[in-house]
Design brief:
By secondary structure, this protein is of the alpha+beta class. 38% of the residues lie in helices and 15% in strands. The protein folds into 2 domains: 86 residues, Arc Repressor Mutant, subunit A, CATH 1.10.10.10; 61 residues, Ferric-uptake regulator, C-terminal dimerisarion domain (Dna Ligase, domain 1, 2-Layer Sandwich). Helix 2 crosses helix 4 and helix 3 crosses helix 4. The longest helix has 16 residues. The radius of gyration is 19 Å and the shape is flat. Bound molecules: zinc ion (ZN) (2 copies).
């Protein structure tokens, strides 16, 4: 799962006829960060300081364009929001039910992704794992210790 350099993507998009404003390039650069799993709102909030004229619509449009062109994928692990991920390919995601954190997990969960399954064309495969993250588990343990003192 090698990361693409954002400059390379900018060049490819320009070649395909897209016009990219400074703000759009900033969004692209943001979403291509290592291990990035962001919502449109998070990207918007962070870039708004640097690009005061930036609108949430521009963020959505740019993310839609990048998904369409196959540079990022949409992760729907959290029913309340869409996460954008620049790590491509099938990789399992973990969702913490307590703090809502989303991360890639290394696991031996493997799926053989066929282009065709039972006569249907397969475009995407997602693996979503739900549970309690290690940070929350630790906090829970520490909390229990505290209780025992009383
Ligand atoms: Zn957690
Ligand atoms: Zn991911």
């Amino acid at each position: 799962m090698k990361k693409r350099n954002y400059k390379e993507i900018v060049r490819e998009l320009k070649e395909r006829g897209y016009t990219l404003s400074m703000a759009r390039i900033a969004i692209l650069r943001y979403v291509m960060k290592e291990n990035a799993h962001y919502t449109a709102e998070e990207i918007y909030k962070d870039l708004k300081h640097e690009y005061p004229t930036l609108s949430i619509a521009t963020v959505y449009n740019t993310l839609k364009l990048l998904s369409k062109e196959g540079y990022i994928q949409q992760i729907m692990i959290d029913p309340n929001k869409v996460i954008y991920d620049s790590t491509l390919g099938v990789h399992p995601h973990f969702y913490c039910k307590i703090c809502g954190k989303i991360e890639d997990i290394s696991s031996d969960l493997t799926v053989s992704v066929n282009r065709e399954m039972d006569g249907n064309r397969v475009d995407e495969v997602h693996i979503y794992v739900y549970g309690i993250c290690k940070d929350c588990l630790r906090k829970e343990k520490e909390g229990n210790k505290g209780l025992r003192i009383n």
